[in-house]
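User: quick one - fold this with magnesium ion bound?
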Amino acid sequence: RDASQMPQRFLFYKPYMSNGIADRILIEQELHKALANEEFYLDFQPQVNLKTSKIESVEALVRWRHPTRGFVSPELFIPIAEESGLIIPLGKWILETACVQAKTWEKQGLPPMKVAVNLSLGQLFQQDLVQMVQEILQRTNLEPKYLQLEITESMTMNIDQMTQLLHELKAIGIQIAVDDFGTGYSSLSYLKDFPIDCLKIDRAFVRNIQHNQNDEALVSMILSMAKHLRLKVVAEGIEEVEQLAFLIEGDCDYIQGYLFSKPISAEQIANNYKDLHNRASDILTGMKYEE
Ligand code: C2E
Ligand code: MG
Ligand code: MG
Ligand code: MG
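Assistant: Sure. Structure tokens for the protein plus magnesium ion:
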């Protein structure tokens, strides 16, 4: 078979494939241009402290505004960036932009807020990751305690390597959170070895919490386990007061979800800080009266 038949074969099979593969190759090419063309930006989603109703941290979430496709979800392009290696320069840009922003809010006189930044698996294998984080903190003049890096359980790395890496990151003075906690298949034993500060309960567990006793049991278990391990807990994807009530009952520390705020721009965080805080305060006060 000569190579000239390949495109034909491709065309022949195309109707039977979701046009996924062709699209994926195109997106990969476009991703490479997107950094230089400044098509990426960050939104930030508040995390509310349930005890104080203050926004003590925000999660940075990358956004891609494609010139013709419009908004492309990170769920789609992060894996492609990961496979193509673009995650290294993109991840660096995300980290630096998030730290610059945290410093900008500080200069604008906002109350101190930690910024949480998602790491990708590829970045964990980046030889100079620790040095890069250190340099970005120095360059942006952000105190390390205001940076939290989020890793996930599905980041398959040798346990010893991971433990060592996390200790090096912790030595800088930053915080470490485990994102999407409970959705990976990893054993729980890493929790005693990894120097982590925080668990983020995945939205999948919280979504049906009012209707599903198994979800309820799992979330309660995670909350009590975290307490024994002296880890903070952030519950993600809270949309309804009933979910919030359950988490307050279980003594959860922080809430992140549409109920309080969707991810919003850095300017919206700065301009609406008081409103966001008042909103959280109102919701939480309302809850306490109901008790
Ligand atoms: P994640 O890190 O678990 O981020 C939380 C996701 O849940 C965000 O989706 C956020 O918008 C969404 N979310 C928060 N509250 C609610 C809620 O109440 N209801 C619903 N339905 N959704 C809620 P987003 O921004 O689309 O990001 C999806 C995933 O893409 C992230 O999950 C993360 O894995 C990845 N991602 C996003 N930004 C970055 C980044 O800067 N770097 C890396 N490496 N990955 C990123
Ligand atoms: Mg995250
Ligand atoms: Mg998550
Ligand atoms: Mg997720």
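One thing worth noting: The CA atoms of residues 27 and 69 lie 10 Å apart.
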